[in-house]
Design a protein that fits this description.
The structure is a homodimer.
Chain A: H1 3-19, H2 22-38, H3 40-56, H4 61-67, H5 71-86, E1 94-101, E2 104-112, E3 115-119, H6 124-136, E4 140-144, H7 150-167, E5 174-177, H8 181-187, E6 195-198, H9 202-210, E7 224-228, H10 234-246, E8 255-261, H11 265-278, E9 282-285, H12 287-293, E10 296-297, E11 310-316, H13 319-329, E12 334-338, H14 342-351, E13 356-361, E14 378-380, E15 388-390, E16 396-407, H15 409-413, E17 422-423
Parallel strand pairs in A: 3-4, 3-6, 4-5, 7-8, 7-12, 8-11, 9-10, 9-11, 12-13
Antiparallel strand pairs in A: 1-2, 1-17, 2-16, 14-15
Chain lengths: 425, 425
């Protein structure tokens, strides 16, 4: 069967999935958890095949760490499933209930999005998180993981799929895509796939966005800023910058540009430079600043996303200039101000147009787990629908139901009846 | 100045607009209301020029009615502004407040989308509704109305813009585009325009969707269904079908396809045919049904959006088949079941994948005013972000703020500190 046939079948069972009770969906999660535990030896064995292949092909250690699925990763996904089971049902939440007239009631009620295509990097734990989020939120999912963990993905998917069917959810509610060409097939399934969530490199996400008419939720760049205000605690600023740059350098929420208020620039940059040398981070600045403090020069493209132990530094004349720099050159992901001044913090948090605006903490907190969402399918820098880390809330939409008693618009348009508008919640 | 320059300037003042107080935004609405009243003669005069031009060019009466801006239309937009002033501030609503740790609090807070481009048909009242919705929701707006009311649009826009500036909102927060080529310019302003809302014909909305990488909110088709269940009150069904087809035939929420359960098909179609002949509606059906009841044949493309006094009729074997027909051939806009049976209604409303699912009332109720939203910028058949009639709720997004005390991720990742997760609301 082609991907197109698969998603046509999925679209048909999507309303069944949407109408399934929370008991069945939680039961599926429980069965997934048990089955992952019971079949861990098989999973680890398949993962060993993937790891051996990866090692043989010379993949570097940092990436190998992500491919690995061991007791630690298993235990952490099981914890995630437990957390997910404990969360309230995201479906069927009533956010508006209004009597339009005595015999006609309007209700806005949350429901799943439908069929979601998720393309993610070679991280077996991501497969478990994404598929369990989709089960809990009543969505059908077509999953395409990185090929480096193809064997682990297949083992995990088969276990999850079997548990889902055993719990009583539709067979066609979940599907694993295995070949790269299936991504392009999926991108052409407009009308059947309701949403595509790509995870991976900027270039990859851009490719997806440019090659489909299906809505895409994702983020294209992660150029995060830390602005060190004139009222900053310098020690705190240095500690936070180190964490935001080095705790996981390749993450989209790591800091790339450090903005410094001119009144503290001299003291701060001197200390920052020393501290960054200790921590093997290379600082870049415009020609004037680089020459003055002996820093590296900015790359040709300016204030870029490095994803490496590099960061840009810039001196700003004012808080206002810092905000303008962030809104103009940033990627609307996550930006932090370090300041002891409440009014400056308030201005920054109001005026910075990003999914996450922080005060006195590291940009690395932008993450579904850390926010307490149980898991995330990704981080969105789009402003519509879902912004920031996307958990269950981002996987549902709503519908309006209207229940009447033969009501017709002509009666209201021609003045024979009047709307009453009484709020019921 | 080009549209691009305009939206670059708009993007700069968008945070100022977002940070403006509800008092200033309501004051702007009040000033708009007063100024529209005080300048009505000038507006009517400009509208007369548009009407004269339209009459001279031979535009038909139905369209002329939409171009007209008279005492009645003025009074209805003034009522709309009053309703809008009375609605609570859509900005700054906190939907999540969670202590991640004793010294770190996460808040999810609603904020405007930013810069919205709205392209709408030649209806001067729409210009007032759309621009006042944007003011109330703190969004910057670039407005392009139909050219047939160019003079009225200019007069209305100038009044509204002056009131907005007098109230203290930024000069660049609102702009009128006047030439058709500016639409294409706007479509190329990715990164500056956050959302485009096109209103108009299907072909036009499709053109917009196919020619921009900016998110588009709109609806491409309005193929609405009424399903007459075996447990329907036939008189009620006929009354509702007449309203849904004829109360305003050219509307996207008018009914196009009538589905009938086979067990009542004979009785119902005979009565429907008679009733529709009385009301000058032409019924279309597949060859077999058309021949049996003497109806017209379906157009070549099948169950289409007529936007005229035509409707398709189809007999279904079951409720399930009705739902499948709607989900497969419909446009996910608004669909209604006529039934006295609660369980059939519940199944229909759960399983139909549309923005509006109705019981025993006319599809024509799918409208922001009738839902009590004060006004609407349009109706969305997209499933992401906003669905159905889009009022203030659909014009806001949210951001996450995180306030800490020097918190770094490494402390949590390496086990020195634990998240506490305490809900504060």
């Amino acid at each position: 069967m082609s991907i197109r046939d698969d998603v046509i079948n999925m679209k048909k069972v999507a309303p069944v999935m949407a109408g399934s009770s929370i008991d069945i969906r939680n039961k599926a999660l429980l069965l997934i958890k048990d089955s992952l535990k019971n079949n861990k030896d098989k999973i680890f064995e398949e993962n060993k095949r993937d790891m051996d292949n990866a090692t043989a092909s010379g993949i570097d250690d940092a990436v190998l760490g992500r491919l690995k699925f061991d007791e630690g990763k298993l235990s952490s996904v099981l914890d995630g499933i437990d957390m997910l089971i404990g969360l309230e049902d995201p479906i069927g939440k009533v956010s508006l209930k209004r009597e339009l007239d005595e015999d006609m009631t309007l209700t806005r009620i949350s429901c799943p999005i439908g069929v979601i295509g998720i393309i993610f990097e070679a991280r077996p734990d991501a497969l478990v998180q994404i598929s369990t989020l989709c089960v809990k939120s009543g969505n059908c999912a077509i999953l395409k993981g990185g090929r480096e963990t193809a064997n682990t993905n297949r083992a995990l998917f088969d276990i999850i799929h079997e548990a889902v069917v055993t719990a009583g959810l539709p067979d066609n509610s979940m599907k694993l895509a295995t070949t790269h060409s299936e991504i392009d097939e999926m991108l052409n399934c407009e009308g059947y796939v309701d949403l595509i969530i790509p995870r991976g490199s900027n270039a990859f996400v851009q490719y997806i966005m440019n090659n489909t008419r299906i809505p895409v939720m994702g983020h294209a760049d992660g150029i995060c800023h830390i602005y060190v205000d004139e009222h900053a605690d310098i020690d705190m600023a240095l500690k936070i910058i180190k964490d935001a740059k080095l705790q996981y350098t390749a993450a989209c929420n790591s800091v790339e540009t450090i903005l410094v208020h001119k009144s503290i620039a001299d003291t701060f940059i001197t200390r920052l430079k020393e501290y960054m040398i200790e921590n093997k981070v290379c600082l870049h600045a415009d020609d004037e600043l680089a020459d003055r403090y002996g820093l590296s020069h900015l790359p040709e493209k300016g204030y870029i996303e490095y994803l490496s132990p590099d960061a840009s530094v810039k001196v700003v004349e004012s808080l206002e200039e810092a905000v303008e720099h962030i809104n103009t050159h940033g990627s609307h992901h996550t930006d932090s101000i370090i300041t002891d001044c409440d009014s400056n913090a308030e201005y920054f948090m109001n005026m910075v147009d990003s999914a996450g605006v922080y005060r006195n903490c590291s940009t690395r907190f932008a993450d579904g787990f850390r926010y307490g969402f149980g898991a995330e399918v990704g981080i969105s820098t789009s402003k519509l629908h879902a912004r920031g880390p996307v958990g269950l809330d981002g996987l549902v939409t709503y519908k309006y139901t209207l229940t009447g008693n033969g009501n017709i618009v002509a009666d209201y348009a021609e003045g024979r009846r009047q709307f009453k508008y009484k709020e019921l919640i």
